[in-house]
Design goal:
By secondary structure, the protein is α/β, with parallel strands linked by helices. The chain is built from 10 helices and 5 strands, in the order αααααβαβααβαβαβ. A 5-stranded parallel beta sheet has the order 2-3-4-1-5, sandwiched between helices.
Length: about 250
C-alpha cells in the first residue's frame, strides 16, 4: 500500500493527527526511518496527545474566562500578596470532587479575577468542565429567564459543570426576585461540583447585600462554611502589570 493511501485511510478513520505524524516522520527525507512498531506507537501517542490538547482547549474556550491565558505557573509571588501555600491544596482538584468552594476577596485590582481564571484554567487542564460568569451577568440572566419563562433552563445551565466561578460578587443589584433562584443554583451546584466566588467585599459584609435575611442566611450558609478563604492584599496590580488585573 502506498504512503498516500495509508494517510488517506487514517484520515477516513478520523485519525488525522496520526496521519500528520506518519507524513512528517515517514515522508520527510531528513527524518531517520524507524521500525513499524515504533512508528505505530508514535502515531497513536501523537493522536492521543493532540486529542487531549484539543479537548482541553475546548474546555477553556467554553468556560469563557475573562483571562483565558491566566495560568498558575505564571503567578507572581514576589509581591508577597499571596503565599504559594495558600493555593497549593487547590491544585489537586480534590476540593472540586468534595464539592467544596473557594472565596477570593481583596480590593479592586489585587488580582482576584486573574487568580480565579488561573485556577479555573488549571481545572480545565485536569479535564474539568468550568463556567465563569460575572455576578452582574448572572443576575441579568436570571431576571431575563424569569420574564420569558426559561428559568428552569437557566438553572440547569449553571448547575451542570464541575466548577462554577462567580466573579465580582457584590457588584450588581440583588433584587428580591433574583435571590430564590440564586439560592437554588448554589444549592444544586453544591451537590454536583465546586464553587468559586471573588469579591471586593469582605465576607462579613455579604449578608448586607441581600434584602431578605432568611434568604441571605440560606445562601451564605451554603457558600461560606464549605469554602477555602483566600485574601489578596496590596495596591492595585493595574499600576504594575499588564496581565494581572482585578
Amino acid at each position: 500500500m502506498s504512503n498516500n493511501k495509508i494517510i488517506s485511510k487514517l484520515k477516513q478513520l478520523k485519525l488525522s493527527h496520526a496521519a500528520n505524524y506518519y507524513e512528517a516522520q515517514y515522508l520527510t527525507p531528513s527524518n531517520p526511518q524507524i521500525g513499524t512498531a515504533q512508528l505505530i506507537d508514535g502515531m497513536l501517542e501523537h493522536e492521543i496527545n493532540q486529542r487531549h490538547n484539543n479537548y482541553v482547549n475546548k474546555l477553556i474556550k467554553n468556560a469563557k474566562f475573562r483571562y483565558s491565558k491566566a495560568r498558575i505557573e505564571d503567578m507572581d509571588y514576589s509581591s508577597k500578596r499571596l503565599n504559594p501555600d495558600a493555593i497549593s491544596h487547590l491544585l489537586e482538584d480534590e476540593w472540586i470532587d468534595k464539592h467544596r468552594g473557594v472565596i477570593i476577596v481583596g480590593a479592586t485590582g489585587t488580582g482576584k479575577t486573574w487568580l480565579a481564571c488561573a485556577l479555573g484554567n488549571h481545572a480545565c487542564r485536569n479535564l474539568r468542565k468550568v463556567m465563569f460568569v460575572q455576578a452582574a451577568d448572572l443576575y441579568e440572566d436570571i431576571i431575563l429567564s424569569i420574564a420569558d419563562g426559561s428559568i428552569a433552563k437557566v438553572k440547569q445551565k449553571y448547575c451542570k459543570v464541575d466548577l462554577l466561578i462567580i466573579d465580582d460578587f457584590g457588584i450588581g443589584e440583588l433584587l428580591p426576585q433574583i435571590c430564590p433562584v440564586l439560592l437554588d443554583i448554589i444549592d444544586k451546584q453544591s451537590s454536583v461540583g465546586g464553587l468559586m466566588i471573588t469579591s471586593q467585599y469582605p465576607v462579613a459584609n455579604w449578608h448586607d447585600l441581600f434584602s431578605e435575611a432568611t434568604i441571605a442566611d440560606a445562601i451564605l450558609d451554603r457558600i461560606i462554611h464549605r469554602s477555602y478563604p483566600i485574601t489578596l492584599t496590596g495596591e492595585s496590580m493595574r499600576k504594575k502589570s499588564t496581565y494581572m488585573i482585578n
